[in-house]
């Protein structure tokens, strides 16, 4: 079984770095997600007892007094930090500048979906899966 300090990559591409005991996350460690987010926590037998999630853009999630994209203010974090775009220029995601979407395709979060081929490719145009 895994013991001590180490790294473990899950099949989803998420990586754990930190303390391991008896094959489980135990002690201080963090999960690094493929989208750039990270979750730092103190673990006990594989279960986080306290932790903090940080989005890829640096925004930290707070359980109390969360003011990001709520019912009253629906701006993206980059819009809160950098201000709104001029009239006629839409910001459809938190990315600034936005990704270039190939003609006729749709951004589906982890890549682009092409309805003609029914294939999803990642942002570097490598095959991910059939739809």
TrEMBL record:
<protein>
    <recommendedName>
        <fullName>MORN repeat-containing protein 5</fullName>
    </recommendedName>
</protein>
<dbReference type="InterPro" id="IPR003409">
    <property type="entry name" value="MORN"/>
</dbReference>
<keyword id="KW-0282">Flagellum</keyword>
<dbReference type="InterPro" id="IPR042814">
    <property type="entry name" value="Morn5"/>
</dbReference>
<keyword id="KW-0966">Cell projection</keyword>
<dbReference type="Pfam" id="PF02493">
    <property type="entry name" value="MORN"/>
</dbReference>
<keyword id="KW-0969">Cilium</keyword>
<keyword id="KW-0677">Repeat</keyword>
<dbReference type="GO" id="GO:0031514">
    <property type="term" value="C:motile cilium"/>
</dbReference>
